[in-house]
Amino acid sequence: MIDTLNIPVNRTPASRLAQTDFSNLPFGKIFSDHMFVADYADGEWKNLQIVPYGDISMSPAASALHYGQAIFEGIKAYKQKNGQIVIFRPVDNFERFNISAERMVMPVVPEEIFMQGMAQLINLDRDWVPTAEGHSLYIRPFMFATDPVIGVHASAAYKFIIIIGPTGAYYAKPIKVKMEMHYARAVEGGVGYAKTAGNYARSLYPTLQAQKEGFDQLIWTDAKEHAYIEESGTTNVMFVINNVLITPSTRDTILDGITRKSILALARSWGMAVEERRVSVAEVIEAAREGSLQEAFGAGTAATIAHIAQIGYKNELFTLPDPASREFSNKALKALSDIRYGNVEDEFGWNYTV
Ligand SMILES: *Cc1c(COP(=O)(O)O)cnc(C)c1O
Fold first, then answer.
1. In this structure, are 190 and 125 located in the same domain?
2. Average pLDDT over all residues of the chain
3. Is the N end or the C end of the chain the one with fewer CB atoms within 10 Å?
4. What pairs with residue 318 in β-bridges?
């Protein structure tokens, strides 16, 4: 992209790069030297700047803290063998960010601010992008309401910030999930399709209950009947039954994942049968019972694919085929990795070069 914005840079006098242990990169704890910040006030975006990563100050009355106008995105960038840095499908994240913004009555962020803010920040901190196989740079754009007014209404002021940090090979150990038959992540007419803070807050308690029962995660079902499958944890969910890739169709209770749609595109390009439709709890349990449930996995940016090893349903526990032997999900994982690291041609045009 052509840089049309002149974003002032205030460089840190003290880089933390040399003290950072790139052989130990826990997810979400290490951030690069700088961050991109912009303010929205008086109906326009202003004060675009790249500054040293650090604390921000705001009013204790800031409305995001009280009423939850807060949205975010999660994106990854990869360093290829030739040193080139690519971001995976960031324009899709940009578009989804503004869908979330609209639902939460927040201002849209113009594409050039989102994309150039991100690209210029990554370019400045490019030595923070890890080189090791499987490692990547996690990118977290977010926006929140800053009006210093305790009163329930859409805020007039916002901050848009992008922070980035190196992350290690996210080895997603196969997970044991519980079919959730009481709590709900999202409701029809609600905000499930928006990447907004409250969706994650509300998921913590049910997830903790399941963890106390020995599960790693939940499979969320619809709020009305708990008869249809929606997502798994904070990822989309997919199944292979009788060699057909089946996933819940997107609707207002489901986050429209970019990993999900990338995997669907790969499957279709390989001539695999794909079904996007409502997926019932009953059919998945039935398939698990009779042995036709070949694969089940979560799909999201953090892990790409998280194999589901076991599914708990009411008082039963079903063990699925060995994750290592699963043909489709392992092939999709490798294909995505090969595209991102530049081992194969990017025939879908998913990589965005910084
Ligand atoms: C972010 C997220 C996903 C996955 O989306 P990706 O674009 O693939 O990272 C799925 N479900 C929920 C609830 C999410 O927050």
1. no
2. 96
3. N
4. 311
Task: Using a cut of 0.70, tell me whether the model's pTM lies above it.
Answer: yes
In a domain? residue 6: no
- Number of domains comprising the chain: 2
pLDDT greater than 90 at residue 32 = yes
User: Which residue lies with its CA nearest to atom 13 of ligand 1?
Assistant: 234
Same domain for 278 and 158, yes or no, is no
Domain containing 209 equals 175-340
Q: How far is the CA of 299 from the centre of ligand 1 (A)?
A: 8
Report which ligand 1 atom has the smallest distance to the Cα of 236. 10
Interatomic CA distance for residues 162 and 119, integer angstroms: 10
> Ligand 1 centroid vs 219 CA: distance in angstroms?
14
Q: Which ligand 1 atom is nearest residue 96's CA?
A: 7
Q: Is ligand 1 within 6 A of the CB of residue 203?
A: no
CATH number at residue 324: 3.20.10.10
